[in-house]
Amino acid sequence: MEERLLNKKYVFDGKGVLALVGGFLAGSFLVAILNVILMFVFNINIQYEDYYLLVANAAGFLAAIFAFDYFVCRPSIGKKLNFNMSPTNLMTYLLIFPMMFGMMLIAEFTTSLIPTTGPFFGEYYQYFTDLMEKMTSNTATLIFLAVIMAPVFEEIVFRGIIMKGLINKGLKPKTAIIIASVIFGLVHGNPWQFVGAVLLGSVLGLVYYKTKSLLLPILLHAFNNLC
Description:
The protein is mainly α. It contains 9 helices and no strands.
């Protein structure tokens, strides 16, 4: 039985969805509870501190990854999640980064076609813009969140867990890449980031499938967010 478990691969299904979503909500909830305790005991509200955004995001993603590992991966294959972060050859980097820049231009053009005015899009766009502006006024915090934390956590979840789990389940790589990319776009919660996120996810998914390593997708994701 132990030998059969070692040869098995984890899959992404309904149980995986519950683990990721439940883990993320639990991690975020724990940070919120901690803030409430600090408010009542020490009269300190960290919700408006710049580092609160970093802590809340880290707690949510780490809890989601842990939940998938503990409730899905270990029971099904008998070992913990393991992500390949090995580098690839220099020529691959030289070829992939220009391709990524081209994708960014296409995404920027396509996004510009989505209306930002009107009875629906106008109000939604204004709400989204105001929400983004209220996230943080600290440039260093925003850069750390977008260029370091988001690429690492999001690539682990969307490529390393969801996409790989769908392929392990028997889906064709192309289908798994598309599904993971669409989910990646949907979680951004607005049509202006959806288009870019789906295109970005498609490129990152293809790169991950070809290299079998998360390192290059993480670097490309960071490059995209930095630009």
